[in-house]
Design goal:
There is one protein chain. By secondary structure, the protein is α+β, with helices and mostly antiparallel strands. The chain has a single domain, classed as Nucleoside Triphosphate Pyrophosphohydrolase (Alpha-Beta Complex). The protein contains two helices and eight strands; from the N terminus they run E-E-E-E-H-E-E-E-E-H. The protein has helices at 45-57, 132-148, and strands at residues 4-15, 18-26, 29-33, 36-38, 63-69, 82-92, 102-104, 112-120. Strands 1, 2, 3, 4, 5, 6, 7 and 8 form an eight-stranded mixed beta sheet that branches. Strand 7 (102-104) and strand 8 (112-120) form a beta hairpin. The termini are far apart.
Amino acid sequence: MIDKFNVRVYALIVNGHKLLVSKEQIDHIKMFKFPGGGLEFGEGLKDAILRELKEELKLTPLKIEQFYISESFVQSQLRDNEQVLAVYYRIWYKGDLELRSIEQATTFGSKNNLSFEWRNLDDTLLKVLSFDTDKEALTRLIERLNTEGELFL
């Protein structure tokens, strides 16, 4: 029975024809997703994505724009009693990002090992993303960039 909401915030960070992704492993569970994490009590959505960017990437963005919110029911793949609401932000930055590997404490498992990498911004990424909401956000991002003339696939 679902008795909790889990609000997640994610960053869509584009650099040319590349998109930043996060590889994470909590105990035996491996995930390929966008940088970001969970909303904490007392935080707004924008506060949460800014905190996640600082924690994971040491990044303070130049510009942030809410891009997509999951529109359908999403059952958590990690906890049977949770419904997930995913919020995606487009992030603009200046300079170089330090793509590092980090280890974080987590309430779900013993630890979360994260690493980041730039991947080609195209629909082949759909095959490797772990979560359906990430796939939907990617599809919409590709459509938007093609419409705006920033990306031609």
